[in-house]
Every structure is written in structure tokens, then in C-alpha cells.
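Running low. Got one?
___
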Amino acid sequence: MRCRHWLLALILLLPGSAAALCSVVTTTPAGFGTLSSIALRTTSQPASTLNGGLSCTGSLLTLLTNNDHFYATVTSTQSGLVGPTGDVIGYTLYANNSTSYPVTRGTAYDFARNGIIDALGLLGGTTPKTVPLYLGTIIGSNVAAGVYTETLSIFWNWNYCSGIGVGSICLGRDINSGTTTLTVNLTVANDCTITAPNIAFGSAPVVSAFTPVTGQTINLACTKGSAYTVGLSDGQNPLSAGGRRRMISGSNYLAYDIFKSAGTTRWGSVGSARRSSTDAEVNPGNGLGTGSQIFNYNAKIYTDQTTPPAGTYLDNVVLDVGF
């Protein structure tokens, strides 16, 4: 009887595991840039940083499971961006470029959820990648001009499978943590909203019959705490001698002027001819931000000129605010 012996060769395939290590790194500051105080107060303003302090490389996207996590806990000694007078600008951090994923201060946010880490491709290559963060100001901040800053502390804490074997068996885990800081800054610029109705003298057959326009107002809502002056240009057709403003119709002129408050002092654009914010009839002083300061004025046609031919006479005057 002949016996046959079979040699069974067992071959175990061990796929190599990809190194997938993360580390806490120095962040890149997030800057909102320079914003008008009005734009800041009325519209949410965006900012971002491409480096929120966590850097990773390697591994596979399919390794992330419900047991894996990438926690970020953001804290600060401030409640927002603080400026030179102590005003605070509130803002929200977001885990991606959408307001659907807000990061609450003091609460761990898991970047492994909602597909955020996957979308970043943070674990999908050999080149280190960092986690970006997004920011948006909260509407309603009525603040003074100046530079606003805050330093955030970000505690990163992660635990995920860093290599995979046969049957998707995890061959090792990357478990670590660390803290980094993120500087956020924003510069607020002075600005105003201006309400300045047109001046209408009506019609008259001769210059002496024009009635002065009285009780006119210009309303300004300027940056909180701002000291400013308001000037009115000489218009498009000023008389070089005497400095009178003039309206024009064809080649004909009609001289007129604008005066401060209810008086006879001409309101101009340079030096003492301007009006200070402290000279407002309503709410004199520095700007209020959300409240108006009102400047009264009157206007009249000069009666010591020859009545020009009939026509529609027009002029444009520029109002400027200087801080």
C-alpha cells in the first residue's frame, strides 16, 4: 500500500499598516481684517484659518468608526474679541465652512463626526494636513474703533485606528492629546450712516421772492465714541470771489448758501467752517453708533444778485465726515 503525503503550505498575508500619526502644532492666526463699524454691526463677517492646531498624515479614510474621535475643546479668559475701550465683539467658531456646525466654547467638539475629517482628507495621504477653523461675527456689536483681539486655547484629544489588517482588523491606534493657542484679531474702522434730504427752494419770479429754507436737518449715526467733524463742499459752481455757492441752468447762475443751525454762519468744508460732533443740536458729543446726532441748518437765495433768466437751477454739494 502506498501512502501519499501532502504538504500544505499556509501563506499568511499581512498587509502593511500605514503610519497615521497626528500631532498638535502651532496655529496660524485668524484675522477678520479691517471692517467698518456699521458693516460689523449689521452683517455677520467671516474669517478662517487653515491651521487650527491639529496636523495628521497617512492612514485610510475607511478607518474611522463610531469609536474613533478627534475632540477639540476651545476655551478663553474672554467672551470675545476685546478692544481698546473694553468693548467686546462676539463671534462663533465653526468646524467647517458652514454655520451648521458651530463649536461651543468649553464643550468638546468631535471632528470625526459629520464627515468633517473625511471631507478634509486629513488621514488620506503622506503629506501632513492641518484642520481649518471658520469664524463668523455675531450681528449687533456696537463698538468703538480700534484693534480687537482674543487668544483661544484649543485642547485636541484624539483616538483612532492608525492601521488596518486582514478583515479590517485594527493593527494599532493613535491616541494622544495636546494644547495649542489661536490668536484672533479684527480692526474696526470709523464709519457713519448719513441722512441728508435735498434742499428745494421752490419757484419765484425774482430773487427777492424766494423764501429761505429753514428747519432742515442732517442726521449722522457714526461709530461709537468717535469724535468727528462735518463739512459741506462749495458745490459744483462756486463763485471764486466771496465764496458763494451757485446753482446753474445752462450758462446762468443763481447764488445761494447753506448756514449752520438757524444762524448766518456759512457751513463749509475747511477749518472752522466745518461743524464738530460736539456742535450737534441733538445728542452733541462723540458718535453713538446706533443713535443719530442731528445737525440743523438753513439755506437761502442771495437777494443782492440780479434775477437770472427763468429755468431750473441745480447744484450738488458733497457732505464729508472727518475723523
Summary: The chain has two helices and 22 strands. The longest strand covers residues 170-189. Residues 1-19 have pLDDT under 50 and may be disordered. The two ends are 113 Å apart (CA to CA).
